[in-house]
Each structure stands twice: as structure tokens, then as C-alpha cells.
């Protein structure tokens, strides 16, 4: 079951109010592939609390002068690390339970 933080139920206007980021800037981060809101049938963007946290991290890095392309590379690196850790953990769990048979 998904955490409440991952449920995409927040509109861009509320994200704007919570983060102080303009709707234009939020859409720009989406265009750059840094954030991935869901869309309703009518095309309304929906964000999660996790998305809001990510947007705040992106905004902080931008204030430090980091380019969006570098932010994206860092995000991809972190995702690969996380995926690798999960894969290694699954392998360890499988090895452990296969030995017990």
C-alpha cells in the first residue's frame, strides 16, 4: 500500500501556496524531467507530498546555482544507487531462503 506521501492528490495551485514556487517554475521543472505529476482526465496536474519535498530540494539547489541538468544527473545517480541496493538486498534474501531449503 502506498504511503500518504506518495498519493498524488494536490493541485498545482496548492503546491504553489505550500512551496512559494510559481506555477510556471513548477511546470518548468516538469518539462526538465525533474518532477512527474499525475494528470486527471481533464489534464489537471496532481502532486504528492513527496513531490513537494522534491520540489523544495530542487529549489534549494537552484538557489545554490546548480543547473537543472546537474540536478537531473544527481537524481538519476541516486535512483540507480537505490535500485542497486534493493537488488542486492533481494539477492541476499533469496540466497538466505534458498540455503534453508
How do the strands and helices of this protein lay out in sequence?
Layout: E1 10-11, H1 12-19, H2 23-31, E2 38-39, E3 45-47, H3 49-63, H4 68-99
Antiparallel strand pairs: 1-3, 2-3
Structure in words:
This is HTH-type transcriptional regulator TnrA. Keywords: DNA-binding, Repressor, Transcription, Transcription regulation. It holds the Pfam family MerR_1. The chain is mainly α and 101 residues long. The chain has one domain (4-100): Multidrug-efflux Transporter Regulator, Chain: A, Domain 2 (Orthogonal Bundle). The protein has helices spanning 12-19, 23-31, 49-63, 68-99; strands at residues 10-11, 38-39, 45-47. The chain has a 3-stranded antiparallel β-sheet with strand order 1-3-2. Strand 2 (38-39) and strand 3 form a beta hairpin. The radius of gyration is 17 Å and the shape is extended. The mean pLDDT is 92.
Strand content: 5-15%
Q: How many runs of DSSP E, i.e. beta strands? A: 3
Q: What is the gyration radius calculated from CA atoms?
A: 17 Å
Helix content: 55-70%
Helix-strand category:
mainly alpha
The CATH architecture would be: Orthogonal Bundle
Overall 3D form: extended
Would you list the SSEs in sequence order as H and E? Answer: EHHEEHH
First-to-last CA distance: 30 Å
Low-confidence stretches: none
Give the CATH topology.
Answer: Multidrug-efflux Transporter Regulator, Chain: A, Domain 2
User: What's the story with the biggest beta sheet?
Assistant: 3 strands, antiparallel
Number of alpha- plus pi-helical segments: 4
Overall number of domains: 1
- CATH level 1 name: Mainly Alpha
Strand order of the largest sheet: 1-3-2
Mean pLDDT: 92
Organism: Oceanobacillus picturae
Protein name: HTH-type transcriptional regulator TnrA
Domain HTH merR-type: 9-77
Keywords: DNA-binding, Repressor, Transcription, Transcription regulation
Amino acid at each position: 500500500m502506498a504511503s500518504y506521501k506518495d498519493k498524488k492528490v494536490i493541485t498545482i495551485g496548492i503546491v504553489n501556496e505550500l512551496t512559494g514556487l510559481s506555477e510556471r517554475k513548477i511546470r518548468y521543472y516538469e518539462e526538465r524531467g525533474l518532477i512527474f505529476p499525475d494528470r486527471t482526465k481533464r489534464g489537471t496536474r496532481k502532486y504528492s507530498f513527496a513531490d513537494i519535498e522534491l520540489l523544495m530540494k530542487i529549489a534549494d539547489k537552484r538557489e545554490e546555482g546548480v543547473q537543472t541538468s546537474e540536478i537531473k544527473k544527481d537524481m538519476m545517480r541516486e535512483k540507480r544507487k537505490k535500485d542497486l541496493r534493493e537488488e542486492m538486498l533481494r539477492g541476499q534474501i533469496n540466497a538466505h531462503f534458498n540455503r534453508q531449503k
